[in-house]
Amino acid sequence: MPLTSDASGVFPIAPTPFNPDGSIDWASADRLFQFYHDIGSDGVTVLGIMGEAPKLEPEESVELVKRCVARMGAKPIIVGVSAPGFAAMRSLARQVMDLGAGGVMIAPPPSLRTDDQITGYYAQAVEAIGSDIPFVIQDYPLTLSVVMTPAVIRKIVMDNPSCVMLKHEDWPGLEKISTLRKFQKEGSLRPISIVTGNGGLFLDFEMERGADGANTGYAFPELLIDVVRLQKAGQRDAAHDIFDLHLPLMRYEQQQGVGLAVRKYVMAKRGILAHDAQRKPGSALSAAAKAEVDYLLARIAKHDPRAKI
Amino acid sequence: MPLTSDASGVFPIAPTPFNPDGSIDWASADRLFQFYHDIGSDGVTVLGIMGEAPKLEPEESVELVKRCVARMGAKPIIVGVSAPGFAAMRSLARQVMDLGAGGVMIAPPPSLRTDDQITGYYAQAVEAIGSDIPFVIQDYPLTLSVVMTPAVIRKIVMDNPSCVMLKHEDWPGLEKISTLRKFQKEGSLRPISIVTGNGGLFLDFEMERGADGANTGYAFPELLIDVVRLQKAGQRDAAHDIFDLHLPLMRYEQQQGVGLAVRKYVMAKRGILAHDAQRKPGSALSAAAKAEVDYLLARIAKHDPRAKI
Amino acid sequence: MPLTSDASGVFPIAPTPFNPDGSIDWASADRLFQFYHDIGSDGVTVLGIMGEAPKLEPEESVELVKRCVARMGAKPIIVGVSAPGFAAMRSLARQVMDLGAGGVMIAPPPSLRTDDQITGYYAQAVEAIGSDIPFVIQDYPLTLSVVMTPAVIRKIVMDNPSCVMLKHEDWPGLEKISTLRKFQKEGSLRPISIVTGNGGLFLDFEMERGADGANTGYAFPELLIDVVRLQKAGQRDAAHDIFDLHLPLMRYEQQQGVGLAVRKYVMAKRGILAHDAQRKPGSALSAAAKAEVDYLLARIAKHDPRAKI
Amino acid sequence: MPLTSDASGVFPIAPTPFNPDGSIDWASADRLFQFYHDIGSDGVTVLGIMGEAPKLEPEESVELVKRCVARMGAKPIIVGVSAPGFAAMRSLARQVMDLGAGGVMIAPPPSLRTDDQITGYYAQAVEAIGSDIPFVIQDYPLTLSVVMTPAVIRKIVMDNPSCVMLKHEDWPGLEKISTLRKFQKEGSLRPISIVTGNGGLFLDFEMERGADGANTGYAFPELLIDVVRLQKAGQRDAAHDIFDLHLPLMRYEQQQGVGLAVRKYVMAKRGILAHDAQRKPGSALSAAAKAEVDYLLARIAKHDPRAKI
């Protein structure tokens, strides 16, 4: 299903499951996508940063998308296609769209600094992949070290009709959502889907500022779905209640560098992944860290039975 | 009172109070230090990054320390003396020690990269200020972009007997505390006080990993004191309970760039500061952000009357 | 003499002379400014990055400007006033203008990323120092990590009538000069003085692209004056001949980090400075490096007697 | 031919030739490698940063190595295998060694900061590719932002017997060569080949400090060969004479970002490449820049007929 600017809800960032020997664990991949489907995700993103995309071979990337489409094809699937060269970006983008992906996500290379460099890069990227492929801007300064103002995002959106979504992952980023929605109200920005990242750490307020949902990972994507649903239903206090319950673990999982190890550890504990392995170079959890995660899970489980694992 | 390697407990990072015209609000400064004293702080840190130290004139810095000593002199006062040149560092360090400060805090300049550059810098700094002044290592990679391994910290500590404390502000940083404490057990590191930063966002577990306390800011330093006290008393669950209650606001206050505006806004609301002004260049809160903070305060106040403001 | 947008020629960046004990060597300072005057400099810049400005105390900075004015007051003197806070920037700027400086130079703080952040910073800086003080934009991405497009520079110039000069130190930077001069021709940019940096390493072509002169350091500022004079006189080949003769040493002196040590070593050898000392933290030359510089000097001296030292 | 720690001389960094449509220009590739062979290169490096390696598809990389081996197989061929994941690194390394490459070059990923992170990374990389493949450390802080001390390089060399060469590209870097050679004399470092980069900008003195040759690009690799040969023959002045003649162009070509465009422009002018095209995203030369390069060529040609093109 193609991704459109009406997209809304939760698009989990899928980790890539590996076997302890570093090969892809395809059975877990199938189970993972089925899981995302069954809990009611509105789509999914594969081959993102937390999907260890740069460590995959081109044919592995393509196969992963195939598996994803087989399980979730009725929902829009977003595929990260960021690459050092436009040739590789085009090649992957066209392949995955042919396979049934809904759109692609493009992160700016870390060397970009000025507004013109950023908007120029997206213009070139669209020229490369073709203007018929819906794409998502990834705005993630903490990791990418590229800072986009609301005006820069607006220019990318207005210059490129195939831009349908912003993966908002600035930090702090609440004012950015408000500004972009103000642009829309004023008429200087066309409607665009805004879904947020950062492991959901500010999802409670991001929804109140006008986000359409989340495009991020957390070992309990159901929690992201709860918060988005409750906020859309106007149940502010209930949204914050469930959010606050999970916040201690979300915070723990949002640690740069070890966050993915935490996420995979919990997802393995939940039985979704067979292993918590990362392809090298990767990070691992100490025994102390695992005990801390277990403690946090036990605390959440007192009020949320899903954490009883 | 001199700072020693036995130091333990909570050393709030003091913001510098300003009037709306940018001048220092001395009355608020006096009230702030009195407040830190009355709630049972074990010391205080002035002229840190969140104290807007680089924006102060030398004579203002000295006056602020004088005010602090007058209110809190019975407790060790830590003074940030980081400076581009060692001449200025020495000058400020010696002045504030004469005024009754307990020690100084030194951050590495952002240009340092290699282990040798870092240990070499601290050796030169100690040579500059004199080996009779107790000093604190500030380990804050997110803002300073200098990464210190546990082995580098150990070398600084072992090479410089006047090093008495580590302000631990790495992120993620839990394993670093464990490693340093392991060094001590093995006998390769002498005892040193480890107090943690990052707005307290991991204080719950940092205490369990072996931290001696906190050296950071939060609009409710009483909460930091609670967590440290409960963890020291072995009341793990109670420590996490009160910590988790405040975590939504702590997270909000820990946003890079706008965090200080949140902290000053709440401290002004509490009546501790007369204004939430920053000296230019600074940041300010939008009406939406203020309403969000108010909402978080109201939620905390249901269980912690101190947040009823 | 006030600095204007007509400024042209060579404004050497003055190193700050120190005694081996780290105190300022005032006698050498006097001699240095007299030297700049006598060789026909069109002005001078003090308290720049290569002047070790951040290591000076406020009163030392003021005294240095006084000494400079006494020797070179008939020429426009540019004073670096970059500071972490606008209060200190204003204080120094107003003091030095009262003492007879011609204008001030402002570098953007390294944290700035977006176009708006940069133009906003200069607007605030001008508000702080007052719109009556002529100022110079320092555009030096290699060291400051702030990248300004020609359009950003244009906006700063057009928004702030007190902006009279660009210290152009981008690398590569030739196209930037051409673009700015094209803006002027098109009428979108008012006239502004463009003087170049980077140790003169591209001065030969910068003049041909439309630069007005140089605002940089080199142990033989006479060479910069020669190149600027010859290029203005249309003697292209002669300009390149003398430039190429010095290029091996200019390249050697333009090494990041040790460049200042090379410059001071040669200027001490020339008898302009009494010592080649830097205030700590600083760098020093090895015996091998000194021998290499001596060798380069001997090679230049075969064709330029000024290098016979 | 396998690369050994006795390697010496000039190993040009080969650009990858492209057609204007972005496909690889294989005829030019063949001609380029034949050219390197005919001028007496001691080997060659393909798939380096200046070879636009990250923009190539895996099969293109392999084909390029095949072409190179066919023309230069009697000399050691170094292949850049840097990759975000060790799986891809291993895959490419083993393939190219099977095809007849002499060794591989590994650059540290830009995220590495501490000494331990750097040495740990190389240990993992060797584990990944196998300890039977000779490898080259690429030490290039300006572009990679990873700073390696001499002691870190020594540790990598001593821990990994398959490390045979350092591509030295620190800036400034002369003291680093001296220190490493001192380590060898003292017996703490085993013999290793040191070849230098930075476009040859310091090759004159690098040879005098103990470098074995150059592993870098310049549109006239013959010049690098001349300098290395003359310095090895003890003809210091002659080496500097020919070096200084080319320095104005070397400096022009060593501009970050546009340097590759200059190199390809001149090599196309020389008839070695059919086009000066880069695969997107790339940079191009303005008419003014081309005229400047032509002027520099004409000046060199007065004394070096090879520049008459």
Strand line-up across the major sheet of chain A: 1-8-7-6-5-4-3-2
Spatial gap, N to C terminus of chain A: 34 Å
Largest sheet of chain A: 8 strands, parallel
> How many individual helices of chain A?
12
Strand elements of chain A, count:
8
Greatest interface and its participating residue counts? A-B, 27 and 26 residues
Shape annotation of chain A: globular
Oligomer: homotetramer
Helix content of chain A: 40-55%
Structural class of chain A: alpha/beta
Strand content of chain A: 5-15%
Low-confidence stretches of chain A: none
The SSE order of chain A reads: EHEHEHEHEHHEHEHEHHHH
Q: Roughly how many Å is the radius of gyration of chain A?
A: 18 Å
Overall pLDDT score of chain A: 97
Written account of the structure:
Four copies of one chain form a homotetramer. By secondary structure, the first copy, chain A, is an alpha/beta fold. Helix content of chain A is 47%, strand content 10%. Chain A is built from twelve helices and eight strands. The first copy, chain A, has helices at 26-38, 58-72, 86-98, 115-129, 141-144, 150-159, 174-186, 203-209, 221-232, 236-253, 259-269, 287-301; strands spanning 9-10, 44-46, 77-80, 103-106, 135-139, 163-168, 193-196, 213-214. In chain A, strands 1-8-7-6-5-4-3-2 form an eight-stranded parallel β-sheet. Chain A is globular. The model of chain A has no long low-confidence stretch (mean pLDDT 97). At the A-B interface, α7, α8, α10 and α12 of A face α7, α8, α10 and α12 of B.
